[in-house]
Here is the input.
Amino acid sequence: MWQTIRLGDVCTISSSKRIFAKEYQTEGIPFYRGKEVIEKHNGNKVSTELFISPKRYEEIKGKYEVPKKGDILLTSVGTLGIPWLVDEDDFYFKDGNLTWLRCNTQILPSYLYLWLNSAEAQNQIDVKCIGSTQKALTIETLNKFQITLPSLELQKKIVAVINPIESRININRSVNENFSDLKVEVGNINFAGHQLGQQRVS
Here is the structure.
């Protein structure tokens, strides 16, 4: 059974505590902005590393919640609506640039991540985001998004079908993006046709 429900009814939507530029460090706990989340969404390494001190991180962690595996960070200023399904612990992120989603028991994080990448979600972002020059996706707006939600059992089936396909796409993208860095000759390669020389790779 499918139902249409407010996004704010199936997950907690919030942001981070303010971290000032003067608190940035050259080592310590990773600190992510929209740029880094987009890189992680694309399966790339973080190109510009920023950190905060472990002491500051533990201070925040002791008073408030911090992101954990299974949460989602969503770009909310500039380039809008790029999600990252968190797969690591012990990091923090910039307020304002990113919105933090934590699922309740009605929805799987992996299903929400797929939905945020869908045309249904992206169309709502295009229609509802505010700002003429610097568009923004607010927490209030996200709470009102309408998400199409099947049962948990069907969510699991959808994820089981789509995730392997998405993983293969990401692997192919990574191979193609990094191929120019390889220092060996591998003959006549056609990634689109999966050809190596005259042989077909199945």
Q: What stands out?
A: The two ends are 37 Å apart (CA to CA). The longest strand covers residues 98-103. Residues 152-178 form the longest helix (27 residues). Confidence is low (pLDDT under 50) at residues 174-202.
